[in-house]
Every structure is written in structure tokens, then in C-alpha cells.
């Protein structure tokens, strides 16, 4: 290792240690151990341009072990990303800083994904690699490798233990994603001590079984060895690569090196001083980096910028030779091309017959795939049930990366993470699918999508006790409340075809919000009064003839039919109620106070909410004087009709509950 390289590696270590020490909080162990690995990759192998962090053909780097965020922040600062300054590093973990505790996409320039939950970055990296493979199969021509980049991801023992990592790397191996390169920071230490207390498997053999090329670097400070490993990984064109780099957590700090205490707490003032002395750092001043190091990084960054300049020339020649491909490229990367769908009759057309909203969603998916050439997605081994298969769109596979139907296998949390990666890469609109009850598996990665403002669509079918014979393990009760509680996440539970069209329209036109479409297994009628007003989240489906209704019945999904039928029966007793369909509480809450008052006037206190799920969250609309026809338990195993009767989802019960409420008012 040359002197300037050694100083450049140690600059990463020093900045990371000083950042954590000043914050008196953080994780210095990984940055100290992985600094050489990161430097070799970023300086000598990774294609990136600090002056244009969004260059479309850049290599991606994801820090799956997000607790080691100061490693990434130090790299971004030294390479000159977004003018991330020493002052920013000194504000690590402080309010409104650009250096939060874990990397946050969209907040700090150069961060490719929000990471922190271990293993999540592995999944998102697989999604990015899949996006690269798909886009390259669509756009590349002989002599014009327009989409040609690698995805690198760094994780440690914690990532390897999390089940999500096995899910996504198993699929990556099956798909032969040769431009995915995983770095394993193998230091045999976790928070509680040696990994031997809980983790003794042969990780290398596991990765080989998954279909990875595996490469071992015995010394985490051997730049030449790390470089050769990266070159070998790039040379493998049939399978992804897994580089095991044996590191020492807390490297360079005499009292902390190879100790569990180096993982998640500051080194301490004296130990930071000892680190600097041990590394031969010329000054003890906090955040000091020699000018020669900054100059070295600047020269590397300037050289990196040439890669984009070369690519820009290639793309210009490509556009001139293949103007139709340039037009297609613009379709893939233009996010504002769908607003005209609002008034296209063919988009909103449907057959006037009873149908399950999952079937109606399947029709919409096949309409959308003909409108959006970059629409890609699939289910966790449930496409026939979720109705997510796109006809004549091909299957994404090792032999056909141009396919648009993704077969995720039975890997829900992995699927959701990969969906995030597809969206993060850019150029694609994606959806994932499973049974609604299994949104429990999806939720952690959906939460990250919400944090990152990614417009991923979740097709969640079999939405209620209507699943019937499968029993309570498959009957979602609390899941609606769970997803509705998540910030920046939209849930639609449509009642018929019109509302299903509205839900899909919202999902594909929203720019920064993930959307869940919660869909029925059983057939539902097409409702008179259903309209595009569903795009407001809640609307008057069937109104009272009175200026002030006697009461209001609010429902979503399959239960809207019950509300309509109850209105008819109540009218026979001269009780005139309003029926409000509420396909999306989240969207309804975004409307003006005036609109919400026009739908749910405060003067009408007699209200009933009807939904075959938990009543949690409905209180704001029902109030103290209202009532619920909802679920109190987990359901049962029997035919759907039997269960709806058993749990009170009948016209007669809705009528009875409404009359009781109105009598009390």
C-alpha cells in the first residue's frame, strides 16, 4: 500500500471515529474495519461521478450494514459529493443534519438507499441489479452498452443472519445476476460478542449453494487483494459474486480492535487519540485531514467524471442511430406522462357484472402494461391468485431479462425489498403482490418505501374473512389498521370496478407515495353511484333525500354493498341515511376541511362504520355516538357466506345497528 493510499484509507477511519466521538453516539467499529475495502472499491473500481450523483449509468453502492453510516459519509465528503462538509460530519446524528444515524435516501446526496434494518440493503441491491439486467436487455445494442453498470453492497454478520438476506440472495443466484457483487465484512463480532455464540454456519458454502461465485480476501487491509477480488467478480459473467473480506472490527484502536465494544459505542476520547497515534496521523485535531489527502481524492473524482463524459458521447451517438430507442428511453424515465389517463374512457371501462376486485385489478394490470412499457412486477408465488400475471409480457429469468413478470417465489419480505430496489434504480414502475394477511411479512420493507418516498404498488388480495375455508391464519383482521397507520403510505380498498380503476390510477400517478391495493377474493356487484370521486378517498355513494341525513353508514370494499342494501331496508321504515364509500382513509384525510364536511357533516352524529376488519382507526369518523359492524376476533374456518353471517356482516345486522344508533340520538 502506497503512502498516499494508506493516508487516504486512514482519513476515512479518522473522520468516522471523530464523528461518532463528537456525537457521543454511533458505530465506529465497521468504518474502522472496512475503510480499506471501501477505498479500494470507490477509488479504483466503482464507476461514479461525485459531480453528478444521479448519473443514470453509475455503479450503485449500498451500505446494507447501515449502522456504519460514518463510513459512507466519510467517503462522500472526501470524494466531494454535494459539498458534504466537515461541519456536516461534525453534526453527525444531530437535528436536521445531513449525516443522520443511518443513511437516508433523498436526504444525503450520494446515498442510494435508506438502510438500517439489517439485510434490507441486500434486498434492495438485488432489485437494483435486476433493474440493470432488465434495462440493458431492452436498450443495449451492439457497440452501445447504454445500460452497463454494477451494484455493490456491503454487509456484515448481522445481515448474514437476517432471513431476508437468504431470501434475496437465493433469488439472485437463481437469476444469475452477474453484475451484483456482495462484500461480506467478516469479523466474527456482533453486539453480544463472538458470533460463535449464535452463528457458526459456513457462509461461503451457503452462498455457493445459492449460486454465487465466492472469493475470500484474508486481510481486510490488503488493497491489492481486495482489488483482485473485485476484478475476479467482474470477470464472472454467469453468476453473482460474494467477496468475503476478513476484517478486524475497530481496526487501529489498540483498546477496541476485535472487541464487541467497538461495534456500537464511541471509542472514547483517549482511545481516539490512541487510534490517531497508532495510525501515524500527523495531528490530533478533530476532523483533521491533510491537504495531500484531499488533493488525492479530488484527482480521483475528476478522473471518475470522465466516465460520464464518455457515456454522454455514447448516448448521443446511440440516440442519433436509434431515434426510436431514444423515444422509448424518454418513456421509461419520464414520470409525468400519465395524467391524461383520467379522461380516457377505455382506461375506466368495465363489464357490468359482479366480479372480484382482484380480477378487476388483473384487468387493470394488463391495461397498464400496454400503456407503460416500463411496468414490471410480480407476486410471491401467487400470481394466479393475485391476478398479477401480465399476458404476453414474458417472464423475467436468467435466460430472459427482458421479461416483465417477476416470479419471486415464496419470499414476501425479500420481494418487498427487491421492489424497493427496482424503484430506487430508476426507469421502472413496479408492483409486488401477495395475500393481504401476509402484508405482515411485507410491512418492514413497505415502511422503508414510505421513508424513501418510493411509489411501489402492493397488490394485496384475499382481503377479509371472505377467504373463508382457509381459516383465521389467512383472514386479515388488523392489517388494514396497521397499514393505514403508516405515514406516507396509501391504502385503497375498492368496492367495485370503478373504485379499482381509481385505485390503480392513483398508484401509477403518485410520485412519492407507496400504495396498497386491498382486493377481494369474492365477487362484488358494480355499484350505482360509484365514481371517480373515489380519487378523493371517500365520497357520497348514495345520498339521503333530506338536507340533513338521518344517519350515515360508512364502509369500504365488499361491505359497501351491505351499506347500500341497509339503506334500502331502512328507507322502508322512513329512515333516510347517506352511504359513504371510503376506499382510502389516507386520501380522504388529504382533502380540504370543506370537502370532508360535505361528505361527513358534523351535524350528523348517528354514524355506523362497516368493515370486515378491526374497528381501530374508525373512531374519528364514527365519534362517541356511533357504532361499528367490524371484527373483534381472528375469524374462523368456513365458507365465506357462513362467516359473514356468523360475524354479523349482513344487511339485517347493519340495519339493526344503525337503528340502535339513531334511537340513541
UniProtKB/TrEMBL annotation:
Start and end residues of each Transketolase-like pyrimidine-binding domain? 355-526
InterPro entries, A to Z: THDP-binding (IPR029061), Transketo_C/PFOR_II (IPR009014), Transketolase-like_C_2 (IPR055152), Transketolase-like_Pyr-bd (IPR005475), Transketolase_bac-like (IPR005478), Transketolase_BS (IPR020826), Transketolase_CS (IPR049557), Transketolase_fam (IPR033247)
- Please name the Pfam families in this protein's record: Transket_pyr (PF02779), Transketolase_C_1 (PF22613), Transketolase_N (PF00456)
Q: Which gene encodes it?
A: tkt
Tell me which cofactor or cofactors this protein depends on: thiamine diphosphate; Mg(2+); Ca(2+); Mn(2+)
Into which family does the record put it?
Belongs to the transketolase family.
Q: Mind telling me which SMART domains this protein's record contains? A: Transket_pyr
> How are cofactors bound according to the entry's free-text note?
Binds 1 thiamine pyrophosphate per subunit.
The species is Pelosinus baikalensis
**Assembly state and interactors?**
Homodimer.
Write down the chemical reaction(s) this protein catalyses.
D-sedoheptulose 7-phosphate + D-glyceraldehyde 3-phosphate = aldehydo-D-ribose 5-phosphate + D-xylulose 5-phosphate
Q: What does this protein do?
A: Catalyzes the transfer of a two-carbon ketol group from a ketose donor to an aldose acceptor, via a covalent intermediate with the cofactor thiamine pyrophosphate.
Return the EC number.
Answer: 2.2.1.1
Q: Which UniProt keywords apply?
A: Calcium, Magnesium, Metal-binding, Thiamine pyrophosphate, Transferase
Q: Name one GO molecular function term.
A: transketolase activity
* SUPFAM superfamilies documented for this protein: Thiamin diphosphate-binding fold (THDP-binding), TK C-terminal domain-like
Membrane spanning stretches: none
Protein's name in the database: Transketolase
